[in-house]
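Next comes this protein:
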Amino acid sequence: MGITIARIMKLPIMNKAFLTAGLTGITRIVEGIAMMESPDSIAYLEKDNLILTNAQIFQDHADFTKTAIETLYNMGVAGIALKLNRYLSEVPLPMKTAADRLGFPIITLPKDITSTQLINSITYEILYSNAYDPRMSFAENVLREIFISGSSRRPLKNRALSLGWDLNKTLGVIVLGIPSPISPDRFIPMLNSCGFTFVIPLEGLLTAVADLEDREMGQTILEEQASRALNALRQEGISGMKIGIGRCYNDMEKAHYSYMESRYALAMGMTGIISKPLISFGHMGIYSVLLDPRNKAPITAILGDTIDYLRQYDRARNTEYIKTLEVYIQQKQSIEKTAQRLFIHYNSVRYRLQKIHELMEKSVMDCSLDQLCILLNISRCRDYLRQCAAEPLFPPKPPGAS
């Protein structure tokens, strides 16, 4: 994602800045900002950064000046913005020549722009370009992108740092679900009082985030806060509430795992696979492994070869094997009770289960009925989350609503 150098040059704060060299690089993409104060700083620069500098580095290191632009270009840096009239009166000729040749933008800044002003302005613009939601604060938008963005984590790190957040911060994430849609405003004060700093409607559900200072006891504290929140909501007469709890990671770059885990944990509760109102992802047994976000690709492939295969067979042959499996699971794998629920003969259920087993032998994936039941539960969780995204349980207010 990110924004172009051209878009940055149109920001109000840049009205006295000039694109001094490398004009053909005006479409280069900026995903983050970094400072460069010495040649050693290069080791910490990242691809698609816009570099800010007061130019002292070029006054003190003449040899570096000759190779700086080519070095930065080869690293994939987006461009460089420097202040003149303090350490340098103009951009050194070797830098301008290299920048024009490579299409590497050099921006000169007026002395009255501070680094903080520039970083904030550009960071806001980058965030806005990445589906910024005007109903949320800047911090909430950063969290939203951390949780659901499939883009590079690098720009997210820069935005977190711009908020003064330690990248080793431990975030506790829970997701709330309820049987029917309701405004999130009713929940926010109660969740805030239970230690959840941020409460954000995301992908149709309500996500609450706690800043856990005790890294060692973070998971225990998070589960206690979730329990308090559930009790507070019940006292307000809110019934049918369930809460999914993600695992805690002492690394903000892994907070998106916590978010996905809490959503899966909630789905396990809302679909009836787990009956408890508080579902902690780390306590879900085999499902904690199979629904681990890092296993998403292989599980998706397995579902395609099993559950999706059966669904396609049902559609093509007008059979009810998926429905039979669902009822079979609901009835704790009792053939007799499954037959009663489906209003068919006991032997008909046995025949269908045997047929399902035979179909799996013909499929790419040879699964037992027990394995199919587990996979069907996973499929149900995913279907529930897709449905929530399409028909939000916690619809956010439209922009400008009071």
Remarks:
- The chain has a mean pLDDT of 88.
- DSSP finds 17 helices and twelve strands in the chain.
- The first strand starts at residue 3 and ends at 4.
